[in-house]
Fold these 4 entries.
Entry 1:
Amino acid sequence: MVREDLKPFFFPESVAVVGASRKPGKVGHELLRNLMRFYKGRIYPINPKAEEVLGLKAYPSIKSLPETPDLAVIVVPAPAVPQAAEEAGEVGVKAIIVISGGFKEVGPEGAELERKLVEVIRKYGMRLIGPNCVGVYVPKSGVNTVFLPAERQGFPPHGGIAFISQSGAFGAAVLDWAAMRGVGMSKFVSYGNKADIDDADLLEYLREDPDTRVITMYVEGVEDGRAFMRALKETTPVKPVIVLKSGRTEAGARAASSHTGSLAGSDAVYSAAFKQSGAVRAYGMEELFDIAMAFDKQPPAIGDRVAVLTVGGGSGVMTTDALSDLGLKVPKLSDETVAKLRKVLLPIASPYNPVDVTGSARDEHLIQAAEILMRSGEIDVIVWLPYYMVPGISPNLNKEFIKVVKEVNGELDKPIPIIGVATGGEYTWKYAKEAEGMGIPMYLSPERAALAVKALVDYGKWLKLHGTYEEYLNRFYSSLKQ
Amino acid sequence: MVREDLKPFFFPESVAVVGASRKPGKVGHELLRNLMRFYKGRIYPINPKAEEVLGLKAYPSIKSLPETPDLAVIVVPAPAVPQAAEEAGEVGVKAIIVISGGFKEVGPEGAELERKLVEVIRKYGMRLIGPNCVGVYVPKSGVNTVFLPAERQGFPPHGGIAFISQSGAFGAAVLDWAAMRGVGMSKFVSYGNKADIDDADLLEYLREDPDTRVITMYVEGVEDGRAFMRALKETTPVKPVIVLKSGRTEAGARAASSHTGSLAGSDAVYSAAFKQSGAVRAYGMEELFDIAMAFDKQPPAIGDRVAVLTVGGGSGVMTTDALSDLGLKVPKLSDETVAKLRKVLLPIASPYNPVDVTGSARDEHLIQAAEILMRSGEIDVIVWLPYYMVPGISPNLNKEFIKVVKEVNGELDKPIPIIGVATGGEYTWKYAKEAEGMGIPMYLSPERAALAVKALVDYGKWLKLHGTYEEYLNRFYSSLKQ
């Protein structure tokens, strides 16, 4: 089902900011500033005491606007929120985001206020994100309700990863990190107390969203477990969902309960539920996005046989360890394949698996070895470690390597995903980021790359189990072409 | 025992480069260029076919030099190496590094060449690093035999971490990464085939080295297991040793054997040996240096009770999970301590553990909470998550926080180590790096910080067991003052 009701949150043509402020540092000021930075639609600051805010004409109330905005963002103090929502409902607004805190999370009085707010939105058939949240950021439309000061907060570019976060501060920190790391995002949603729209709604929307190739979530607790499970189960045969669930331990659960009031629940139950529903579980922010980056750029794997193709011997050994630790195979190659590799590699190279082209290698050694491995029928994934720093590797390596890999994958029945490792500093990461721009996710260490490979292998199995592998591939490649 | 015989490798007054080359890209050229970049002593290029190399007067042989160099670095092809070593021995050189490959690692012929080389160095009482290695880098003296092109290779500044690597390419990649990350190093040694100087020798030297606070190692295989164990056991009561041992898995061991010819040995034996000898085992490059950075900057912990002090609730929950996963305690605080915290924090703050000062906090909330926690007697370590991006946190936070922490630690019987988490982007990492410069190691994620805390806790126990805790603290703090 396409969730048309959520579209105004992500692609509104006009946005009202109820509680826009002229005072730097205030939420209603910084939020408006961030919104104005990227959003190209019409913005209406609502402030009864101002003529203009940040150069935009201000209006005394939502009722005095020249049009009904598609989206109303509310940042006034909690006690004034139900009334603001009422006015939005009266003029026909269909989507509101309540940033303000002071609701369920502060105790019985706040909970009563939240109940009132929900009553209002039900009355008018509106949908609500929040309260007590950071809201949304959508690079494609420029909608942005993050209220951290623009000087301190980075925003990532458009990309195939959607991120849903129960924690607002953590969500904003992740956006900031993603901007620095160059991780592209399709949608960010911090839903706070999720008085209306929750994880299940968002999964339903993102499942059909052509801009989203992979869904990531930070979750502390789920109220409606059945709905969440159902939404997960319906989503994972279509798109991978990676979940970072905190409050896993006894002490962590206690912490979660004083943070969002979430009952973290038995972790064993969550683990079983994720496994049953085909969601990938991540155990930290780095894992969450390391895995997401692989899904964003590479197809799933059709088996668990991994070739390690390396310029550095030691890193090849560590990669083999890391893959084996996760139950993946780094198989010996057939005599035939070894002979083919020996023919094209340097005499000092090691044509087994890991295929170690050595620090004396040139571009063509990596490229020819990759092609032989891909056509061998003996492996399902390649982890390559190009060591851009050695003298024989040229600045053209990425371009030429990736051209060949794409050609060969085009000819194969089933594509072979490629994952990269780039241990090194500035020069290395200049080229590692170039490779990412061309479609190969790169990791600082073998251990992180191995986790990404494991996710591609497991998800490939899941898709086959559901008979949706071919369909997934078609959608994945056409989405990459957009 | 102070290993005077190793000093010429790290602090020579003059260095000869046998095989210095005028041709860019050649090892003998790039190595000389890197050496000239940092080293302030006298450099003698040896090249019978050149008058000068890179602007330095060249000499036809080591015998024609105006003085006996403290160190000879040999980069000529393998078959010419024993003769070059012989000449160095004749003029009285005491230390040689053989960078050239083509020895034991290539088969029986190379092994014979290596045997000859060892014969020569024994005859003259010389010491040898290599062959088939990247050699040494010592920021303090500027000695540098790394031969990766200077445009592609970064070098870290001086610091308290020594790094010994069996793999040259991985070693160079780590230096390059450390330069980008801002990790300071005291000594780097890539010993290659370790025909003479091995892990045990280097441990013996570094144990007494006043510039080294923590020793890190990348090891694929150890020949003399007893000597290695003995050296580890004698070192760990004095300084922490963190070992990244690869070839852990069956496939990894096979890979190691074709890389360095190392018999990786049973991993269970290594694990038991590390445990018995008090070495910390790391399972990847990031772990290795995450842990090393903690030892470089902070004292060991006297117990396993950890306080989490956070601006972001979600990150506090994840930190609690990560600590609990490793068997560390995040204990409830006493009513008395909770009351003290409540008094200084905002009403919406959570004065339990995690202590969540919330996104509305100001500098003083973090500072006062830290002081209360440190003086409570209820915790042994603090993990703080300052969230530099929120509006109430000022650019002075680090300076003021660290000043108070140092004062309080000065008054306590036993110091409380502080470890930081900074999830975020450019603004956040500008301040995270500032904090590191002031002595608090900062990590991108709670999971990485937790591993560092675990190492501080385990090592504190180890020192107590050996009765060397007080002695360690004295040496640690006086080394920080240098």
Entry 2:
Amino acid sequence: MSVESKLADLGLALPQPPQPLGSYTATSEAGDLLFISGQLPLREGRVIFQGRVGEVLTVEQGKQAAELAALNVLAQIRHYLGGFERLDHIVRVEGHVSSAEGYFDQPAVINGASDLFAAVLGEKAGHARSAFSHNQLPANAAVVLVVIAKIRPAQ
Amino acid sequence: MSVESKLADLGLALPQPPQPLGSYTATSEAGDLLFISGQLPLREGRVIFQGRVGEVLTVEQGKQAAELAALNVLAQIRHYLGGFERLDHIVRVEGHVSSAEGYFDQPAVINGASDLFAAVLGEKAGHARSAFSHNQLPANAAVVLVVIAKIRPAQ
Amino acid sequence: MSVESKLADLGLALPQPPQPLGSYTATSEAGDLLFISGQLPLREGRVIFQGRVGEVLTVEQGKQAAELAALNVLAQIRHYLGGFERLDHIVRVEGHVSSAEGYFDQPAVINGASDLFAAVLGEKAGHARSAFSHNQLPANAAVVLVVIAKIRPAQ
């Protein structure tokens, strides 16, 4: 089943891939690696989830923020590769969480991204991961995801 | 002298490599790079060093936390490669330190990891490095290490 | 026009590449990637821009800090490669900004680095990017840049 079919089954659609906000590019290829610029929980140009998890946002909302940021990662990959056939696998996910003082379960929040990748990418989802706490993030986003993917050569 | 012998000489043993805490993998290979999930100062499932360096922990304890996290990095590499023969070198270390307000010497803390790599890996230890301050880290860990290694093809 | 000529046109000169402050190396090569240790807004051994953007430093000063850190990145690349001929392109920039509570425009600060790369490297400047907020950084630096570059084989 295709990635798009799996997304549709889950009632999800990929957003338009966000444009870079400066002199950089959304994706950068090097050998068999694709580096994707930090993705926010953005939809139609607006950061949907703002503020600290454990303060303004519940953990469940934090997970939704991570899922939405992950959808933007997939949108960037599809935009760059023209689909998911050339995606070998997600290599690494760094999940940064805007967190209330004393909130220590950033991995639970970033599971929102990892679980989405597992659900729609199957075997291509496997990734190493790190989670971090910040007292705030750019644009007051709840989550920023930084992803590296392995890609296959164009046929 | 083997890595294991050097560890024994230093009175150190590698811990069991920690399991991932979500839908991700402890290590992810891409070409000649091995990406290792963020490692904490963990022993037998417990985070041994918690809290902020310069507040709850001394700098010396912070260095011990970085050394223990580095032992977990080595445990993950050994687990994935079945030893250290296929390790080419440690490419990059990112060291994240839970820090008291006004504590600015995160590099001194992360030296606990770099010095361990130098002591047990010799020429394979050389790595680029960055150190960061956070006001807290997941599981209230004192240190998180994010490492990329270069590996050699299996014979 | 060479990178050095473009720098001269802009009235800029590359600093001496800073030495590592521990058991690590300024740069680490793996395949066609060059990993550069975190660079600070350093000149002649001194961190020129210290403190939080939006508190001690203006956004304009933050951008200058990012530009100076970017010059140190270029100095490391030149030092390692003996020039810029073997630089394929800047693959990824992670920009960490020491930020006042409630300051959310870290991307504006890191544009100081991205704009410099664009001005002096032209087509080799294109990079994926992520920006982060920290409440402090090592050595009380205003900015830390972590860069990965793609390099070409020596002839």
Entry 3:
Amino acid sequence: MILCDIGNTNAHLLREGEFVIESLERFLSSVFGGKVYYICVNDSLRQVLKKRENFIDLESFIKIDTPYKGIGIDRICACKSVHEGVVVDAGSAITVDVMSGGKHQGGFILPGLKAYEKAYKDISPRLNFDINREISLNSLPKNTKDAISFAVLKSLVLTIQNIADGKNIYFTGGDGEYLSSFFENGVFDRMIVFKTLLNTVEELKKGKFKC
Amino acid sequence: MILCDIGNTNAHLLREGEFVIESLERFLSSVFGGKVYYICVNDSLRQVLKKRENFIDLESFIKIDTPYKGIGIDRICACKSVHEGVVVDAGSAITVDVMSGGKHQGGFILPGLKAYEKAYKDISPRLNFDINREISLNSLPKNTKDAISFAVLKSLVLTIQNIADGKNIYFTGGDGEYLSSFFENGVFDRMIVFKTLLNTVEELKKGKFKC
């Protein structure tokens, strides 16, 4: 059995207890023997996968109690694993969601680190820098690379801190481990989406849902 | 006499006491009778303007006391008009600089509002929204358009507020007036860059600089 969380840039796989991150191109050209249980936020890719016999889309089996209209299935899965606290999924975009008493309260979406880098590059070639991940957030930048890195990281950290207001913050996604290092109350959990996928597959196997 | 602050998207002109914003394309095709004193952060455009006889590049005459390497001439001009406080120029990018005792202390660069919108659109068509400028920053978003708008504005406001630490904040640029509305200690001043340009032209006319 293979579990997949398919995003806009990469597919995250849990295969025989091992995590693998694959580009969408590589993922699509891979041949999988057994059943592949997946969620997918990429609409065009989802149409492609629907036609594969051994691929099972879990989206319709997973619900969350929320006032939010149009929340992505990846955010639903991450949030369902957290009863109380803030959930940050840091990938192509950085989604930030608040859970209280097992209910989703709302959330917001910041660009991912790579998206910020591309945004600066698109403004001007003078702003074409990779983010300096060693930047100090305690002193004012003195050059352009640091000015960009500081702005991105300080704005992310302050906004997440503000919404968390002391609650625990659960990070996942490709940049989740890095971002969690800025927070005393931050925990990195690579399994957060997969916990929900695993539970759903178990319930499916028990015949809880009518397919 | 015409004064110009030429950015990466638009040219801001002060012509006979009147402010005009022109697209770069329109600006380049305009015919100006008298002398045009300008600064320009767009390198390729600067090369073009150098060949025009009635265009005078003011950059080499304007200096600031700063430990920052590679600060843009537009930021220098805005900062030179502020002795004490934070200077925010909100255009294609949003530059945030700290002035203390007439000295530039450092600063950082956030993407401009349009650059954020493009960054989201580039991540996924699901995130293709214009920022909702009426968004409340006091309640958690409940749909994707608000989730994006809240994230952009909350992160901008918190980061600028944090660096200002109660000092006055002087806004300029195309989105300066709008952003200033989020700050009790915020002042919008369309003239902030032009004050320095005007002073420099006066000094030039007095023969202060050797051309």
Entry 4:
Amino acid sequence: MPVEQSLIGSRMPRVDSEAKATGRAIFTGDISLPGMLQAKVLRSPYAHARIKSIDTQKAEALPGVRAVVSGMNTAGVKWGVFRYTRDQKLLPQERVRYVGEGVAAVAADTLEIAQEAASLIKVDYEPLPAVFNVWDAMAPDAPLLHEDHPGNINVHVAIEAGEVEEGFAGSYLVREDTFTAPEDSYFMTEPYAAVANPRQDGSLELWMPNAAPHQKAKALANALKMPLNKVIVRKSYIGGAFGGRSDVFPAEFITALLSLESDRPVRLCFTREENSLATRKGHGMYTIVKTGMDKQGRVLARDVTCYMDGGAYSSTGPIATSVPFLCHEQCYRLPAVRYNGYRVYTNKPIGGMYRVHGRAWATGVDLQLDIMAEELGLDPLELRLRNARQAGETTPTGSYVQSCRLSQCIEQSAEKAGWREKYGKLPAYHGIGLGTNSVQTGFPLGIRGGSAAIIKFNEDGGATLISGVVDNGQGNDNMLVQIAAEILGLDPRDIQLISADTEATPNDPGAYSMQATFTGGNAVLLAATDARDQIFEEAAQALEAHTRDLVAKDRSIYVAGAPDKALPLAKVIRMALLKGNNIIGRGSFASKVDHRREWLKNPQGQLSETFSFGATIAEVKVDPETGEVDILNMVLSQDCGKALNPMLVEGQFEGGAVMGGSSGMMKEEHLWTKEGLCLNPGFLDYKVALPLDVPPMENVIVESIDPTGPFGAKEAGMSVAMSAAQALAGAVSNAIGWPVMEYPLTPDRVLNALAQKKAAYGDSKGGKP
Amino acid sequence: MPVEQSLIGSRMPRVDSEAKATGRAIFTGDISLPGMLQAKVLRSPYAHARIKSIDTQKAEALPGVRAVVSGMNTAGVKWGVFRYTRDQKLLPQERVRYVGEGVAAVAADTLEIAQEAASLIKVDYEPLPAVFNVWDAMAPDAPLLHEDHPGNINVHVAIEAGEVEEGFAGSYLVREDTFTAPEDSYFMTEPYAAVANPRQDGSLELWMPNAAPHQKAKALANALKMPLNKVIVRKSYIGGAFGGRSDVFPAEFITALLSLESDRPVRLCFTREENSLATRKGHGMYTIVKTGMDKQGRVLARDVTCYMDGGAYSSTGPIATSVPFLCHEQCYRLPAVRYNGYRVYTNKPIGGMYRVHGRAWATGVDLQLDIMAEELGLDPLELRLRNARQAGETTPTGSYVQSCRLSQCIEQSAEKAGWREKYGKLPAYHGIGLGTNSVQTGFPLGIRGGSAAIIKFNEDGGATLISGVVDNGQGNDNMLVQIAAEILGLDPRDIQLISADTEATPNDPGAYSMQATFTGGNAVLLAATDARDQIFEEAAQALEAHTRDLVAKDRSIYVAGAPDKALPLAKVIRMALLKGNNIIGRGSFASKVDHRREWLKNPQGQLSETFSFGATIAEVKVDPETGEVDILNMVLSQDCGKALNPMLVEGQFEGGAVMGGSSGMMKEEHLWTKEGLCLNPGFLDYKVALPLDVPPMENVIVESIDPTGPFGAKEAGMSVAMSAAQALAGAVSNAIGWPVMEYPLTPDRVLNALAQKKAAYGDSKGGKP
């Protein structure tokens, strides 16, 4: 019997690296089918207007045009993630609500014909007054985007736990601050595209970059009024999701309609600009944080109010209204807390769930802790440790935290970053900052039944693993294969993976909300274990051993403690086949959570089965003349339960820090004309971090071995992504000696903060510099 | 609770009819992939030659050529269905053995370039002496095709059961006759094509018309030295198989090699002529039948010797050497029997398993019974009944026959055809004939493990059925869905089917050797029952009933006897999902047979789990001037166990009768030049029955409700196909009063028989006319 060696925890290279690096990976926009048509969407030039008529006759008459669709020839299906957030007609019929909303679409033999045909569609609009920020939208006389939502309040999340006012009253120190940030963009590498192919058996094949094939299929089946097993979302390579590809988009509905109408395959590819306007954006937000603490820095009460600019429709935005609060209440002990989150409709593109929930929210809470620590004369690190969540505790809204090594994350990243040597001792305009956060793991949003997996064997001992989990860039395909290979004693190369495809794979919630490893991984673990049980049963007879003594390793079945007693796995499979037993393992896993209908507006009970925790420390230098920030170093640490594949975990940490920190916190913001037109939908004007912008980073993996995660694993990377922004805001504030409360930390905002400081202190220097 | 109504036995229209009738069905030759290359095979002009060298340089240098393969750059993999029949290098290296054998192949940007490049390949041949018939091949000084097979005997099947010589000695009447037939063709509607696509994950996708995707994948994985789970045979529409698409062909190996070499998708489409030369053909055969019977017409002993012209390689031909004997020993009681079957190598295209096994074999046995009945003064019908197999008996080689209604088939078809009113009473040149046969059902050739199936459910109550069974024209897709729908109380439209695809589907032996309904259908039955058990478990709690009292019907679960207590199936699925249970049913089924290595050469024990039985009666008029035969009517009857879908069963009966009878018996024969070139590889010169050639036919379905067939079903159509030829030979012989022992019954052969009769009897009329 060979030396015990586990795949779990090994640095297994990604299966998709080569295809992606060599350009061979086929993304949706690369798909070409015989007879495929090209599609183009006609978009609204108005932020708010009544549609009086849509005349598609000229477009239809253009040679080469095969189908034209608009709200005029659909049933007016309304879409929303939850029953009570269905506010968007996938093709508008009466009204458009933002510049760029799709109004009609054409499928034609070539893209040029489709473009020309789209320009021939005549839409008669009656412009309506519009609102472009939450204050205008909530004004008493504001035009309403949706008549059934007075004050343009899309959703109001109101949470209260404990005696908040008593908490403030008993506090030694109470402070209220306001933090703001404009909209940001997901800016996935791959612009959105969709391909639809109507098949002879009455089913419809679809490809699109997405985070949840089974959810997409379900939503589209509802919208198209087709049985779910006839709407087949296929696998393709996906260039990022980040929360922005979770719900159904009008574009995939439109592509499906065009293909059904023309009875031909249809491809729709968004331009980069369309990807910014017509998919989703991060919410602009205005957050007021009031915190009371005792003299030792322990938080006694907190009250947060947040106004989020949601754009024209709900999408997954209502979830994004709760999530920053939930992350925050998981991360810190809070005897009493109140939250009012308002997501407000405006005549702008739609805000959705975003990987880095709440720049002005999470950063506000953390930066305020820094300020109050200073006011109390405490090290912010020490203050974090005093408030840090511990395993075995329950959150204010009732989630039991079964594993948590947040304090270790803080301590270990502080040690690596040299926090105690540096904090308060750095020269002028040189600062250090700390962010912490927590994220749900196995958060079953909007789908029943969790994830299921199937594994089947061939007579040569190879297996095929069938899982609905999608890999949209984070390496889920590796994760699935690694778990199955570990259980079965196979080499990962022995396992062929069918993932994502909704025809072949069983139910799965999707690779968003930190579910893939926990939910999908556990389903694979159960399926592989089920198969192994059958294999052991077969081998036990031949090896004259008890199944409990058998070990699967190195493509063989061994008897523990009797290294000479072994059978190749392939031989066991063939023995079973000769008896007519085809080994097929199956597994089904769903998080143990409270499925309460109203959890969105007022969450209660177990939100998620477990939670990850992270702490990021950043060190920066600020140029006081230009306001430019130079990120010297970032230390990224997270309790990810168990690092199944440290290489992927580190990739997630670093990607998260770049997205949430050096890109999101330092650069990104969407700008708008006063007519609601996005000024910077493209790469030239909207700034994201490029490789040269990525700062030096160090990773600290903290393992807590979660009792229900697969091999102890929880999500990896989100808690880093969500703490990186805070660390940078804290570091810049620490560097200049004045808290910066408007994000992102572009030079103008840094200079503005320096000016505020000067206005407050005059020539007396005030804080650190 | 609704009225009890079963899908089983209902006339369910075929799911593929519309696609096929409208031309929308995508066959392999229709597949187009981005960047796909076109392939062309260079074929040997010699029937037998040594390959001295192959120079591909000029072809490789032609612009647009992406890959060239020949035996020079393959490892010389030898292929054969069984370990001891591996005699064919998929690309020859030293020798070619028939005109048309593929020697090299090219993949290029266009077919024109591929053709030109193929013509630029220079093969230096040294011609060798060749043999074109079994007598020349078995001659002592004949050139050997395979040095390890003296006398060019590919396989010698030698079976002996009972005391044969004693049987003859004790017989009242003994007769020996010789029957001959040349090669015939499958002539599938769809010419062979193959598409190969190398994927980024190291797997290879393949499409080709085939009868057994999992067998193809296994064979190609062996030949290409790839893991089985990386060789993925996909589903496509298939235009017929008839036994001729069961084993691996050089062409799919070549297409795979070209695609791996070029790293591009490659398509190879055969011309109609290539389809005749380079796939498979039916064996030419020479059969000597000696039968002894008592005065009452009971057969006491039989000795059959058959020489089969096998062509250059084994393929599935060795199986075809046994099968006619096995069918015959199942059909008739035989106290003592001997069989010597010789499959002989010749320098002609390869003979394979053919749906209508043995024109000169089965027809010989049946026609001899007619002759002997006449000699005994018995009605041939009566003689058949006296010798007909009965349920509960065991065949000479040891197969127990668990269900058999052969006598009823004979009686019922005789009644419908008016046999007793007509036999011996028809006017001159007007005749009636009877054929009977039996076929194995669930005959597990060359693959382990039988068939497995998986069924999974969606929350809307729809299901997806996953089965490796392929539909190559007979309607298997319907059969699979029908069985699952019946068990689950669903409408067939509620079930999406994934079949054939070897990546997504579990193991299956293939749709040949009468396995699909029995083996694949039983696997589906078990998988659906497994799912139903889970559904009943879930519903029982909610309905407060025992699972044993539940009934699945009309998309609902009912409590038997309490029609008001019911739950929609979709609701039960959702209840299960809320608990994290994804309903996934699985089933695995393999025939209970003796897996003996040498069964091919000397079968023993249970050959097949059950057997079908058929009887066909034909009525003809012969024009004595021209020899033309006019088929007036055919009555087709078979014990198919249970007719799951009578419409499909009738289709199989009629298709079988056309193929085996009006086409195969009356028209078809391949002709050859003395250099071994096939003279009639195309539709113009090789005659198959056209719609106008199809005679009036009547179907008699006899059900025996087999104890292990799914819902009692056995194979449908083969026993008709295999008895139709005998019925026609009997009818023509009866019409002219002289047995015709050379087939097919073309006018020249009929006139020849009339001339023989005249030579024998002179002007005295002899027999009937």
